[in-house]
Amino acid sequence: MQRFIGVDFSGGVNAGRKIWIANGRSVNDVLLIETCLQGEALPDSARERTGCLAALRTFIRSAGDALIGLDFPLSLPADFLNGQTWLHFIRSFSDRYTTPQDFRQACLRAADGRELKRRTDIETKTPFSPYNLRLYRQTYYGLRDVIAPLVRERSVCVWPMQHCRSGVPHLIEICPASTLKQMNWYRPYKGRSIEQRAARLLIVRALQREGVQLAGQLKPIVLADPEGDALDSVLAAWTAYRARAQLDRAPDDPLYRREGCVFV
What we know:
By secondary structure, the protein is an alpha/beta fold. It has one domain (3-263): Nucleotidyltransferase, domain 5, CATH 3.30.420. It is built from 12 helices and 8 strands. It has helices at residues 15-18, 49-61, 86-91, 93-96, 100-110, 119-124, 136-153, 176-182, 194-209, 218-224, 229-243, 256-259; strands at residues 3-8, 20-27, 30-38, 66-70, 157-158, 170-174, 212-214, 262-263. Strands 1, 2, 3, 4, 5, 6, 7 and 8 form an 8-stranded mixed beta sheet that branches. Helix 2 (49-61) packs across helix 7 and helix 9 (194-209) packs across helix 10 (218-224). The protein is globular. It starts with a strand and ends with a strand.
């Protein structure tokens, strides 16, 4: 794989403004980020969620042999799959959960009101359960409107739940916050203050030391986004780049083929 893409996702009403996509390629052991843009800037996209997610599906579908890091849960705790395979679960997702609220309430009922985490969430220290109040819309719309349609078409491979196939984009789950914590780079970087902008600059410089280059005028664009979503998309692309060798070996425990893995 030569192309690595990071998607900082949103399930909000104006998802086109919140979603950012960093598109990079490997050049002589360097990850060159060539573009970093908002979801509404994709061809035939929109600011509102439905139009933007349709454009995002088209973008992913046409990404060729790329490795794409997505910033939302690609599965649920195994107990919620009721013995099904992940493939059956994802194909029936929209029939099982008709709204984001229905999804969250069904998960809470099944867990006796608790917010359960997957094994990978615990291992990589992700901030939230997939159906946490701050994350459940992202999980719902990501699975229903992005993953499920692409899987039904067989136009992608979602790893490690599916076996690798040549000629299609491979999708993995990432979490920028977990990556920053693992690298000991985490500091408050989302906001408009001088300190938060300085924190974004420190993270960008750390990425550059790790071999990430931002083409053209991308650096000021990434630094200027006060919500940190542009930077998160670059972190997602870099995480995908770092994870490229892991696709050659299947996880030891079959649980990961149902619950998924967060790559950091």
